[in-house]
Structure to design on (260 residues):
């Protein structure tokens, strides 16, 4: 569904991503791991249209989307979450979900003026969808809290909820488990799994928590120093000498897990 073709990115003299190619197959939950500074988030930023690559291409459903802006990708069903959640802290959880829907007629004053009947009808639909998302993620009890007051894990759930308000088909998740307690992590894991199996979402997910990766992802791609160094199921990745070396050499913020 997404094909990353020979993508490189330099920031001044620093080559953050070096000639990386891999595919995210439709219906998969594909993992992207690697030590801190490996270039994972940079690659996501390129795929999500934050900035173009220095060279290489991104292909979505057979169409070249390299360099297309984020809102254009959004309309094609590609959305992402950030390593640090981007919630509107002074708005409630419910309001945070309400501002997401694409192609809401109300976003354009002229449209809303001309077609106010339709706008009001859509509002009701949006509210229904918000309730459904709150329910799905089991965060209805904090619906009227200010988003800024949520715990780190609840913010990650809200982030996931925001992707559910769109007609997303391809979702990039940057560290959905970072700083999240075990209970919430289980919830996030099950939400991702259900969105994948029940709603047909395709995921590409960056994570340092190797348990989460091995429970959800197949295949897994490994980056180190900007390069793709291994790809395969997690059971194989764990055994890979180059991968182990990369984690040991780069300062271990996630370990490879004990068993194999
Ligand atoms: N906008 C930027 N300008 C300059 N350098 C950047 C920029 N974004 C990232 N880098 C550098 O590119 C390299 C890769 O960073 P990136 O954030 O992609 O790593 P990462 O794999 O996501 O790491 P982490 O696991 O810590 O999140 C790092 O050396 C980083 O300092
Ligand atoms: Mg990162």
């Amino acid at each position: 569904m997404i094909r990353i073709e020979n993508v490189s990115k330099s920031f001044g003299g620093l080559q953050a991503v070096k000639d990386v190619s891999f595919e995210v197959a439709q219906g998969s939950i594909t993992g992207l791991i690697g030590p801190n500074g490996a270039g994972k988030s940079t690659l996501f930023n390129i795929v999500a249209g934050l900035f173009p690559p220095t060279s290489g291409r991104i292909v979505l459903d057979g169409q070249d989307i390299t360099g297309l802006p984020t809102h254009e990708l959004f309309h094609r069903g590609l959305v992402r979450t950030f390593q640090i959640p981007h919630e509107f802290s002074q708005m409630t959880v419910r309001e945070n979900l309400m501002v997401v829907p694409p192609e809401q007629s109300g976003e354009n004053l002229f449209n809303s003026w001309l077609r106010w009947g339709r706008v009001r009808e859509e509002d009701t639909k949006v509210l229904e969808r918000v309730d459904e998302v709150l329910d799905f993620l089991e965060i209805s009890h904090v619906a009227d809290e200010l988003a800024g007051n949520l715990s780190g894990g609840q913010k990650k759930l809200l982030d996931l909820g925001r992707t559910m308000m769109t007609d997303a088909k391809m979702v990039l998740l940057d560290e959905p488990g970072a700083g999240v307690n075990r209970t919430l992590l289980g919830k996030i894991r099950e939400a991702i799994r259900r969105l994948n199996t029940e709603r047909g979402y395709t995921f590409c997910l960056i994570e340092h928590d190797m348990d989460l990766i091995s429970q959800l992802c197949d295949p897994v791609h490994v980056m180190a120093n900007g390069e793709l160094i291994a790809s395969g199921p997690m059971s194989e990745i764990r055994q890979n000498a180059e991968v182990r070396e990369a984690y040991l050499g780069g300062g271990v913020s996630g370990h490879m897990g004990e068993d194999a």
